[in-house]
Every structure is written in C-alpha cells, then in structure tokens.
Write a structure and sequence with these properties.
- By secondary structure, the protein is α/β, with parallel strands linked by helices.
- The chain is 20% helix and 25% strand.
- It is built from four helices and 20 strands.
- The strands form three sheets. An eight-stranded mixed beta sheet has the order 2-5-8-11-14-17-19-20. A six-stranded parallel beta sheet has the order 1-4-7-10-13-16, with no helix packed on it.
- A hairpin with a 4-residue loop joins strand 19 and strand 20 (185-189).
- The longest helix is centred in the first third of the chain and has 19 residues, at 8-26.
- 29% of the residues are buried.
C-alpha cells in the first residue's frame, strides 16, 4: 500500500465533502438514510425509484467503472420497495433491483459485483410485460454474499449463511450453511453454537470508532506537507 502524502487537513476536508455529498445528493433519493454511514465515492452511486430505506452505519463503496446501483421499478407508480438494514457492506459493482420487495437484514456483507433481483423483468413468451406474480427476496442478518454471486427472485437466505463467489441462488437457503455453484447447493454446514463477530459488533459505538480513525489519520499523516503532496500528484517518482 502506497504512502498517503496528503496533509491531515486535506483528508479531513475530503471526508467532510464526501459526507456532505451523500447527505445532499443520495439522501433525497431515499425514504430513509441512516446515520454514521460511510459512502466512498458516492458520486458513482445510483439510487432510483420509490420506497428505498437504507439503515445506520452502512458502508457503501462505489467506483467509476463499478458503480453501485440500487433501484425500484414497481408495477405501479410508488410501488415496490428495497429495505437495507443496519451495518451493511455494499462493495463496488453491486446491483439491487426490485420490482416488488427486497429486504436485506443487518450486518449483511456484499462483495464486488453482487446482483440481487426479485423479478425476471420479462416473461418467457411475453417479452414485453413483467410477470405479475410477486416473488420477494429476503436476506437474513449476517449473511455474506461472495464476489459476483446472483440472488434471484423468491429466494430467502437464512441468517449467518455464506454464498460462494459466482454462485447463482435460485431457491431458499437455510441458515448457517455455505452454498456454492449454479444452481447453488449446500456444500457445508456452519456450527450454530459457534459465536459470530459481526459488523454490528464493529459499529457498536460509531462515534468512538470515528474518533479512533480520526486519531489514526492524525498520527499517520502528521508531518505531510502541502507542496510535497502536490508534487507527488503532478510529478510522481518511483517510490512515492
């Protein structure tokens, strides 16, 4: 990992702007956007449609070529909903698309490129209209969705379960298991008596956590000069 040459006040200004951007431009697209969220490059996040709720202490990471897209397109105006719980991690390239209902529990982790949808969006023979049958997606607390996996309509995933990378989930997954493959099948059972450390534990005191990271930034960036930082931006040399 390369050294961060920014002066502390430059990083602080960037983080302040990032939080302002999320509040000013993301929050208005949600029915609810919780407190203490971390929105990395929020200008690459696309939120559209009605009835979208995102909980507290969410970490949402977007990139220019891997934006996060969260959208509701219901059968009728103002219909359909997406509910994302507290402490959820959403990585670059994730897409969450609801026709009727997608409910994501607390402390869920989504790796890069996860796709969640509750509809096929077109019929097999009628490729103009969407199917009318409602097939909600329910993802339980503390679920881990691996890189590039797909969660399809009507799926319920039980709490603590893990979906392996690139798996395609087409039917219900019980709690405390690992599933893999296309279509996904149970490949391992987790010990339900083993305690889990979750993102809810990590964010148990978000204000203290924020102060801790602020202290780390002050220590790591101490002594960084403004002109040296500009030089590393415009005239980088090997080893910067």
């Amino acid at each position: 990992m390369r050294k961060d040459h920014r002066p502390y006040w430059v990083k602080k200004a960037y983080l302040t702007f990032r939080a302002f951007y999320a509040k000013r431009f993301l929050a208005p697209h949600c029915d609810f956007l919780g407190d203490h969220g971390t929105y990395m490059k929020p200008w690459y996040t696309d939120i559209s449609g009605p009835n979208i709720r995102i909980g507290h202490c969410v970490t949402l990471i977007s990139e220019k070529y891997a934006p996060v897209k969260i959208g509701v397109w219901g059968h009728e105006p103002d219909s359909g909903e997406i509910h994302i719980g507290d402490y959820v991690l959403i990585s670059p390239g994730c897409r969450i698309s609801a026709c009727d209902q997608i409910h994501i529990g607390n402390s869920v982790m989504m790796a890069n490129g996860v796709y969640i949808t509750d509809s096929d969006w077109h019929g097999i023979y009628n490729r103009v209209d969407r199917p009318k049958e409602k097939r909600p997606v329910i993802i339980g607390d503390n679920v881990w969705l691996g890189d590039g996996c797909t969660i399809l309509k009507g799926v319920t995933i039980g709490e603590n379960s893990i979906v392996a990378a690139n798996a395609v989930v087409t039917k219900a997954v019980p709690q405390n298991v690992i599933v893999a493959g296309n279509p996904a099948k149970v490949v391992k059972a987790l010990d339900p008596d083993e305690s889990f450390t979750t993102r809810a534990d990590f964010f148990s005191d978000p204000i203290a956590l924020s102060r801790f990271y602020e202290g780390i930034d002050k220590m790591v960036l101490k002594g960084n000069g403004f002109w040296h930082w500009l030089r590393t931006l415009w005239f980088p040399v090997q080893g910067d």
